[in-house]
Amino acid sequence: MNIKTEGVHAGEFLLSEASGYRSRANIVISAGAGKLLAGTLIAILTSANAGQVTANAENAGNGVLNGIVVTSAAVTGSYLVSVTAAGAEGAKYTVTGPGGNEVGKGVAGTQFVGGGLTFDLAEGATPFAKGDEFAIAVQAGLGEWVAYDESGANDGRRAASGVLWANIDATDNDVKAAAIVRDAEVIDSLLTGLDAAGEAELLALGIVVRTSLPDNPKLGG
C-alpha cells in the first residue's frame, strides 16, 4: 500500500485577510529560487551581486575585470566578455548574456554599461589578444523574491516579507506569483520556513501567525 501525503493547497494557510485585495500582491520569484510550496515565508532581494569573475586560463593578456555593478536589468547566469580585437587604444570586446545574445560592445579602459551590468576591463602589462575571455557569474533579481532564510546571504533574504500563495517552480526561470504581504492571519502549521525572527518580521507587516488546534485551526491563540 502506497501512502501519499497531500501538500498544502494554494492559500490553505490563510485564516483571514483584509477586505478586497489589500493583503495580496503580485510578485516575481527569482530564477534559481527552486521549487517553493504554498505557505513558504518569502523575502525581497534588496541587492543583486556579481559572483566570481573567471579569466580564461589561456588568456594572453594579464589585465583584470573589476568594478562590477549589477542592476535590475540583469538576469541570473553567466555573462561572457570576449576580446574581439587588440589595439593600441585598448582591446575591443563584446559581452554576451546568459541566453547567448550580445548585450553590448566595449573598449578596455572605458567603463562598460549594458545588459544590466557595469564594469571596467583594464589592460595589464601584457596586452589582451583576440580570443581572451572573462566569465562573470551574476545573481540578479533585485526587487524579486526568494525563500526567507535568516542565515542566508545578506541580500534581503534574511527578512521575511510575506507568504507565498501557491506552489511554484523557479528552478530555471523567473516565475510570476501571488503572496500575502500585509494585514492577515496565517496558520503556523501550514507555513514553511517559519522561525521566531520570521514570525516577528511578519507581525511588523500586520501578518499575525496563529497556532493551529487539531479540531479547529481557526480557534488558535
Break the fold down into its secondary structure elements and pairings.
Blueprint lengths: L13 E4 L6 E6 L4 E3 L4 E4 L4 E7 L8 E7 L6 E9 L6 E5 L5 E6 L4 E3 L2 E6 L10 E7 L5 E3 L14 E3 L3 E3 L4 E6 L3 E4 L8 H9 L2 E4 L11
Parallel strand pairs: 17-18
Antiparallel strand pairs: 1-17, 2-16, 3-15, 4-13, 4-14, 5-12, 6-11, 7-8, 7-12, 8-9, 10-11, 14-16
Describe the protein in words:
- This protein is mainly β.
- It folds into two domains: 14-46 and 143-219, Beta Barrel (Virus Head Decoration Protein, Chain: A); 49-139, no CATH class.
- The chain has one helix at residues 196-204; strands at residues 14-17, 24-29, 34-36, 41-44, 49-55, 64-70, 77-85, 92-96, 102-107, 112-114, 117-122, 133-139, 145-147, 162-164, 168-170, 175-180, 184-187, 207-210.
- The strands form five sheets. A five-stranded antiparallel beta sheet has the order 2-16-14-4-13, with no helix packed on it. A five-stranded antiparallel beta sheet has the order 5-12-7-8-9, with no helix packed on it. Strands 1-17-18 form a three-stranded mixed beta sheet.
- The two termini are 38 Å apart.
- The model has no long low-confidence stretch (mean pLDDT 90).
